[in-house]
Amino acid sequence: MVYDSSSFGVVALAAYRPDWDLFRIQLRSIQDQSHTDFVCLISADGGDQEIADFVKAELNDDSRFRVLGFPERLGFYGNFERVVQAVPPEAQWVALADQDDRWYPSKLETLIPKLNDVALVSGQARVVRNPGNEVVADSTARKNVPFGALVAQNQVTGSLCVFRRELVDLALPFPRLETITQVHDHWLAVCAAATGGAMVVEDVLQDYVQHGGNVLGEVEDHRGILSSWRHLGSMSEKYQGSKSLLAMLRTSNDLSFGWRRTMMDCLKARVAINSSDLETGLAAFSSGHAWRPTLRVLWSGFRRGDIAAPCVLEFVAGAPAELFVNGFGARRR
Q: What's the predicted TM-score (pTM) here?
C-alpha cells in the first residue's frame, strides 16, 4: 500500500460540550486541509443533536463530516476508543483530532506520506493559550526515543498524529486502568512502536490550544509539594474512593507503574516479541518485572533527556506500592 495524495482516510474527532468558537475554528481548519480525501467522524459523547446541528450549519452541510451520537457518556478515553471503532475498513489511515485546536492546511499532506515508512507519525504544535491567543511555546518539542523510554514517558499527542488503519485492529479494545494516565495516544504510540514503528517529525502543523477545559494539557505544572500532595489526595478519592495513605500509595502506583504495566501486559498478549528494544520495555514494566531493567531504562532515559525529571519522580512515588505488587524478591537480571 502506498500512502500519498490519493490515500483515503478518517479524521476521528472526539467531542464533548465544546467551546463553540474553538470548535468552529477546528472544524474549518479540518475542512480546509489540502489533502481532501477523507471523512471526519465526530463522536459526540453523551448526546449529538446540538453538535450535529452546529456542524451542519457551520460547514454548509459538507458530507465528509458525520456526527455519531451516543447517549452514554464515556469520558475522553472511551470516546476516542468509540470513534476509532467506527473507522471503516476501507480507510488507509486515521488522524485523531481534539475539538478545540487549529490544524494548519498542510497537516495531512505532510504526515500521510510518512506512513510509507512507519505505522504512526506525529508532528509538533505551537502551544497557544485561550483566550488571548498567547503563544506559550513555539513547538511541543516531542522527540524520538527508544521503546522503553516511550513506555515510561509518552512522546505522542493524539491530536498531532496520523497512523495506519491496520493499527486499529491491534489497539482495540483499549486496555483499562481507571486513572488519569490512562490515555489513548500513549497506547497507540506503544502499539505502533512495537510493530511498524513510530516517528516524531519536527514540522509544526497546528495550534495546540490550552484553556480551562483541557482534560490533559501542555502547560507545565508548577505545583509545590503541598499542592501536589493535595492533588494526589483528590485523585485518590476519585479513583480509590479514599484519601488514606494506602489509597494514595495505590494511586501513585497507578499513575506510574500501573498504567505502564497494564499496557505492557496487554501488548505482550497481542504481539510477538521480535526485537531487543521491545524486550527491554517489556522486561522493565510488565507484570513481574525485575528491578534492574526498570532502573536501567529510567536512569538511561533520564541521563539522555528522553525521560523528564518529574516523570522519574512519579515512578519514585509509585515504587513503594510496586514493591508489594512485584515483590521484594523479584528475579534480578
A: 0.90
